[in-house]
Here is the input.
Amino acid sequence: MQLLTKTIPKWVSLRLLMLLLVSANVAFSGSIVKHLPGFDGELPFKLETGYISVGDSELFYYFIESQGNPQEDPLFLWLTGGPGCSSFSGIVYEIGPIEFDINTYTGGLPRLVYYPYAWTKTASIIFLDAPVGTGFSYARTPEGWPTSDSESAEQSYQFLRKWLDEHPQYLPVQLFIGGDSYSGITVPLVTKKVIDGVAAKVKPRMNLKGYLIGSPRTDSIIDENSKIVFAHRMALISDELFEQLKTSCNEDYVNVDPSNTACVMALAYYEKCIEDLFTNDILEPTCAFASPKLNTELERRSLRENPTNFILSPPRIPEEWCRNFNYALAYMWSNDERVQEALHVRQGFVLDWKRCNKSLSYTKDILSVVDVHRYLSKFGLQVLVESGDRDMVVPFVGTVKWIKSLNLTVAIDWRPWFVDGQVAGYTRKYLENGFRLTYATVKGAGHTAPEYYRRECYYMFHRWVHYYPL
Here is the structure.
């Protein structure tokens, strides 16, 4: 330490000194976390957190070991969407074994409680903060911050290789790649890299069995065009407007010629019809904003842009509740020094944790992964694609369309699936030369489905991952 200090000019900041010390020892073993601030007692599951160095990046992860049989249960690499949304969001709001006690929150550090219907009851899951700039992941050099779809997929693949090198006990178990929302782009890309790596005999050899995508962004044209069809099916626009849109825009609502006045005007009318909807779930209220409008012509701002700019309404008052208020608790909890110390977060590199970082230096360089899915269908993989049927961010309409374009054989046609004797959604199964794709909707769910119907999605996952019919 003394020798290193002497070689550094006086003007070098303490933060840079910390960075040099960390980079001098890039090999980092994860640390077991037994207690978390806000949670009463010892955690009833095994949690490990840490960093893996990939190029100029330090990628942070939360690993929760299966609460069932870790030696036999599958291993998942989980990528939350965005791009730029922390995997902690997936843990606490969607598929993990903890959640915030939102109903009794009165201020201070939010309280965490155990959630029993977690996917980790039957699978070990690595929740990765990717790409760099997401959650607690950071770059060691200025050149390391910019990234893209293709670079993020490569980083996630290299992370997985290094993580498995450090955790060889998980190499024999079945491996799946999973994620939701915008990670519908990166999950199939990472899956392809794993398959190609196995074919090239890259070490360590991964026991890949399949992948899972929820409310998946897949093709920019298909996904965007499907919003118009979805709006019509949900009675958000009239039959007349729908026919006018189809005719004047030639069913292409993305590449619109500005001189096509009829199409432009029809789209403007469509936007008016849906502008006050909460597109994550068209059945739920939009969020109130903290200050009144200065101009009635100004576009409404949403809490989705930055939850910390809005007043946290007491969720116990039903008429004041809005789903996005729940997210404010994640900001309060994750930015607490006690929490970061418990998680073994390196101090000084992420000064303001965000659930979803909208300021990433990120290039969306892959507009469609339909061909990647087509390539993957040549292999005997187990695949689950699921959608909330009230999600207008990535409507099920587009998801069904690209799945049909793969020309897979329908093994089990459209039917309901049940939880506790009630219809939880609808499903169809495809089978093609050992490639098994299950598509499922979650009735009444938004974007993404596990956040809205967490228990039902657990049963869906449990049945699928253990090769049972939904």
